[in-house]
Write a structure and sequence with these properties.
The protein is built from 15 helices and 10 strands. The chain is elongated, with a radius of gyration of 28 Å. It is α+β, with helices and mostly antiparallel strands and about 350 residues long. It has 3 domains: about 5-115, Beta-Lactamase; about 120-265, Alpha-Beta Plaits (2-Layer Sandwich); about 270-359, Arc Repressor Mutant, subunit A (Orthogonal Bundle), CATH 1.10.10.2840. It comes from Lactiplantibacillus brownii.
């Protein structure tokens, strides 16, 4: 059986046992799948070897185990499941299994799992995730496996309408981020954690899902301590409230852009905020009203683009010379010392305070 024959036949499989038999035919070797506890998930042969506990050790670099004259290659499957699965493939010196064959087989099994969600441990993983969010110090985090060894992000998915939670959206999200721990918060928003690299790669797909189902995603900054997940969930919630207040809800939102608003939300003395804000911005506002100008927005866009002329001109649909004249007029009115970084930082902060108070 060729690689193409395996791929074409695997698409037609609707049960894991039939897929296991297909793989055995492709490799011309007995194969079986067990979880980390030694429970047999599927097998192509009733004659299983004498499997011992060391075959399931997660801290070993061994990729093969001996039973009599037969060697069994071991490859992990569903590495984000609560109970990791292992594929075991028999091989002899006369019929070795190549690395490309083994990689293709793993790909086929994982694709099958994504289509049919055959992993019975996903619900256990989701329950454990729920427990982690409620009792982070009392949850055994060792079961999260590889998620403990890389930066993570918290993601929330909130409906933009008052209609009930959509099962179709949840299924689509689970298909997109297969095997990732998922639960719901007290407001029935979906909550999940994924590796930071995965989240960055999937942002375009999440944007499509958000638009299709009328949901908005909030993605936290990366963190490495999974027991801090509840803290980053709270940040996602607060960022959502800030974006909602500002009228800036998009299909995909990064909490980093709302950190200052989260801080401002915890300040009770708004008069202090008004006194802290650069009064120069109010001067620009007054000038714009009196002369039907747009200097206030021009300065904001210039600062947000790190004072890059070409980028700002393009964004404002201005010629570079026209933008230069506007900036000169702004400097004539409020006298900005561009050589002092703390001055420009103060202006950017003031814009956010102004925006916050305006809403």
């Amino acid at each position: 059986m060729t690689d193409s024959d395996l791929l074409l036949s695997a698409i037609k499989c609707t049960a894991l046992d039939s897929l296991t038999q297909l793989i055995a035919t492709y490799l011309e070797q007995p194969v079986f799948i067990m979880d980390v506890t030694g429970h047999t998930i599927s097998t192509s042969t009733p004659d299983l070897p004498a499997v011992t506990p060391d075959w399931f050790r997660l801290d070993t670099n061994r990729g093969a185990f001996q039973d009599g004259t037969t060697e069994y290659l071991r490859q992990p499957i569903n590495t984000y499941a609560l109970k990791i699965w292992f594929l075991f493939v028999a091989q002899s010196k006369g019929y070795p299994v190549t690395a490309s064959q083994l990689n293709l087989v793993i790909q086929v099994i994982n694709n099958f799992n994504e289509r049919y969600t055959v992993n019975p441990n996903q619900s256990e993983m989701n329950s454990l995730f729920t427990q982690l969010l409620h009792q982070p110090t009392k949850t055994d985090i060792t079961s999260f496996g590889p998620l403990l060894n890389q930066p993570l992000v918290m993601i929330t998915a909130t409906p933009l309408s008052t209609r009930p939670h959509q099962d179709a959206f949840k299924q689509a999200l689970q298909k997109q981020l297969t095997t990732m721990p998922m639960t719901e918060d007290t407001h029935q928003n979906l909550v999940l954690i994924v590796p930071a690299t995965t989240a960055k790669f999937e942002q375009t797909a999440l944007d499509t899902l958000g638009q299709q189902y009328q949901y908005c995603f909030f993605i936290s900054e990366p963190y490495t301590d999974i027991t801090k997940s509840r803290d980053f969930l709270n940040i996602c919630h607060q960022a959502f409230k800030a974006a909602q207040k500002l009228g800036e809800l998009h299909p995909v939102n990064l909490t980093q852009g709302y950190n200052i608003y989260i801080i401002l939300d915890h300040m009770t003395d708004t008069s202090l905020l008004r006194q802290t804000m650069c009064a120069q911005l109010l001067t620009l506002k007054a000038y714009d009203r009196a002369h039907h100008a747009e200097l206030f927005q021009t300065l904001f866009t210039y600062l947000e683009n790190d004072c890059r002329l070409n980028t700002t001109a393009t964004q404002l649909h201005l010629h570079r010379n026209s933008l230069t004249k506007r900036l000169q007029r702004i400097d004539d009115i409020i006298h900005i010392d561009w050589s002092q970084p703390h001055k420009t930082f103060g202006l950017r902060l003031s814009y956010r305070i102004f925006d916050y108070l305006d809403h």
